[in-house]
Amino acid sequence: MNHAEKHIDASDYIEAPLAPKRTRLQAFGRMLKQNRLAALGFFIFVLFFLCAVTGLILTSGTKPLFNPAMVRLEEKLRPPLSKPNLKALRPDQVPVLNVYLMGTDDLGRDVFARMLQGAWVSLTVGFVAVGISVFIGIFMGGIAGYFGQHHIKTIHILFCLCLIGGIGLIWINAASAGTALLLLCLSSIVFLLSARDKLPEKARPVWKGILLGNAVSVDTLIMRIVDIMLCFPSFFLILTVVALLPASIYNIMIVIGLTSWMGTTRFVRAEFLSLREQDFVAAAKALGIGNFRIIFRHIMPNAVAPVLVSATIGIATAILTEAGLSFLGFGVPPPHATWGNILSDGKNFIFDAPWLTFIPGIAILIVVLSFNLFGEGLRDILNPKLRERH
Amino acid sequence: MDKQPNPHGTPLLKVENLKVYFQSDGERARAVDGISYEVRQKQTVCIVGESGCGKTVSSLSILGLIPSPPGEIVGGEIFFSGQDLLKLDEKAMQKIRGNQIAMVFQEPLTSLNPVFTIGNQIGEAVYTHKPMDAESLKRYMIQLLSDVGIPSPEQRLNDYPHQLSGGQRQRVMIAMALSCDPALMIADEPTTALDVTVQAQILELLRSIQQKRSMAILYITHDLGVVSAIAHWIYVMYAGIIAEQGNADQIFRFPRHPYTQGLLASLPGRSKRGKRLYSIPGSVPNPAYKPKGCPFHPRCPHAISPCRKEYPDMCDYGHGHMARCPVLYEKREHSE
Fold first, then answer.
1. Residues B98, A287: C-beta atoms closer than 8 Å
2. ipTM, two decimals
3. Which residue of A has its CA nearest to B176?
4. A171 belongs to a structural domain
5. Which value, to the nearest 10 degrees, does the dihedral of the CA atoms of residues B191, B197, B203, B208 take?
6. In 3-state terms, what secondary structure has residue B106?
7. Would you say the pTM of this structure is higher than 0.80?
8. Mean pLDDT of the residues in chain B
């Protein structure tokens, strides 16, 4: 019996004492304790989240507890913490708690109720917009980083241009031109199929050589698209798009998401470029695991830390962008309250009723600041190299 | 253990005149420059050579894992149980990788994904080729881990790679490689990153596994000590070509190529105690600028003028022992 066979029976071993296990959550809690600012940011974030959710519950429905749309013209521009004039109001107009916690605006609406409703809008805009941008960013960055050195053929690019152009033309009612472009698409598919399996590259005529030749690498294509997107002043791009589209909270989320994925793409690509060369990727390939599984199951979890950090900060930016849009009057349409349009409505009365501008302004400041602090803290927690410094 | 070559076994893997070139900045690095070798069933075949001689590249090209670009398989054939692997498409290759040909890598420290548990990773290796339900998968994984000699395998399944030692990680890698009962296991310097005692354990493990599972091992190493311990058949590579081939006895007792002779002379041994250890002068040529003729001639003590011009032929010394050095072959004929 040789040495190795002795090892094989595991019951021969005395149970080795295991090192105490710390779950990820426990490690997270410990880190948070060490980094006070991040803990503060996290605390405010949780508070904000609770406010937004309770706000949604308390302000929606037919008979909400806090009615953000209740107009009381007799009670306009009341300062915070003032008592309602019970004689002038019908019983259903009296605010809950019998006090205007944050005063009233120029139509006598309860600012506290409006802030609660606005919190939910800010939260959803932040999360959905960042969700969209992170999804696009991870996908594009992953493809650029992993398949970067593969080339796209000229005919593929022409095909895509024809397809997009064709659909676009049909959409704007230029049916004949659009159909012609779509037919061109079909013919290029036929051409591609017929060109397969013809081996000798040198025997092709020049035009075939150009069509089937490599035009750009995937990496170049995606990163140049990113550069182009970064060239647009994104706030004005959003303004233009929002001016064209019907104003709705979902359109704003989508537009903010579609114009802010470039940073994530760059992050993810950079991470993938280094992770792609790691041995565990080669090992996964040697086990016969498919490319997309390697990208999304093996590399992605290793690359997600910086993405998470930039997403946290991205939420703050999205909230700011939405507030800015609402302030300019391009945001969420009026009956719905958001922090931006409370601020915008209040600016006319800044000397008579300063709380109308200060309350939403300070709320935006605190939430954005807390997200930024939390994001920074998260970066320290997730990046062991930075961790040593504290 | 039987160390005789087994010329009658059916060849499982047959590499014919394989050429792998790397293209970069207008330079063409001929990493593997026309090598041929065979691995027969149940055999351990070693490929020995210095760093950069093309050992790893040749083994990666079997699995179709050469990064392309810059790498390119320029010519040759790789037959694995009758089919030419170079003609298969990516889908078909994925079915072979891990399933019929498995690979163990050099660095157990980085070959496991740091963010998943051991159980997760072995499970995926099994599941990719042999889908089974969770319960039997777990039982199978525990069996695999105890087969490779990992104590308390049940607990280990929930461990992350950083909680294991280097040797244990390499055992996990071997368990993953064994998971689908491959016919051939390629081990690319599996013991290089480990210390000597662990190295011996891993070698023992490989040997016992091979006997139990009757699989062939293609073992790639630069360590002649390891080779003498496990090889049925040895190929000595130098600068992208096979310099010499033979069984352990032939290679170690009657080396016929000046490079092999130099390698053996530079091993420390009892008879050399107190003397200065021999070293082959010079270093391995840059694969982009290989010398004309025999690639070894600038470092060769026996080099004569034809060596600078003519590419050397394989010379047969009988019983499968061959060396790519006509000069020594002729000298031997004269002396006999």
1. yes
2. 0.78
3. A287
4. no
5. -150
6. coil
7. no
8. 83
